[in-house]
Specification:
alpha+beta; binds FE2/S2 (inorganic) cluster; 2 domains; DNA polymerase, domain 1; Ubiquitin-like (UB roll)
């Protein structure tokens, strides 16, 4: 086991991890931050997306040891004081989630995207979310929700 210090959701956390452990396992099994979901576990579905230094990464293929000293944000950090983030709020309003398994990944990807692009077109949203898969919604409502959230965030 190797000692590592990560900044998770604005708190420093020092813990022992296996040399080959991935960040998804560390978040879910050691820190009990189970909002980040394990889907394919091989970089294909996007449901394990978290932000590292504000950029989306796939935690299932990110070695935890490579996150030493990095700032990690997970879905648990997104709602503030019981108030949903505009992306979460619009996903609810638009029915952009059904089982919800993919939703944390979509939210984390969208947060960074809307920070970079304040006035996205539909095709830009589709492109930005192309690495996130959803088996329930057909995507249309998710795309509409992200567009609506971009208006709320102006
Ligand atoms: S669980 Fe990481 S991309 Fe699917
Ligand atoms: S809401 Fe079920 S996978 Fe997206």
């Amino acid at each position: 086991m190797i000692k590592v210090t990560l900044n998770i959701n604005d708190f420093d956390r020092t813990l022992l991890v296996e040399p080959d452990e991935n960040l998804l396992y560390t978040l879910r099994e050691r820190l009990l931050l189970t909002g980040t979901k394990k889907g394919c576990d091989q970089a294909s579905c996007g449901t394990c997306t978290v932000l590292m230094d504000k950029k989306p990464i796939l935690s299932c293929i990110t070695p935890t040891l490579r996150c030493e000293g990095k700032s990690i944000h997970t879905i648990e950090s997104v709602a503030k004081n019981g108030k949903l983030h505009p992306i979460q709020d619009q996903l609810v309003k638009h029915g952009g989630l059904q089982c919800g398994f993919c939703t944390p990944g979509f939210v984390m990807t969208s947060i960074e995207f809307l920070e970079e692009n304040k006035n996205p077109t539909e095709s830009e949203i589709k492109e930005a979310l192309s690495g996130n898969l959803c088996r329930c919604t057909g995507y249309k409502k998710i795309i509409e929700a992200v567009k609506a959230a971009s208006e709320d965030m102006k």
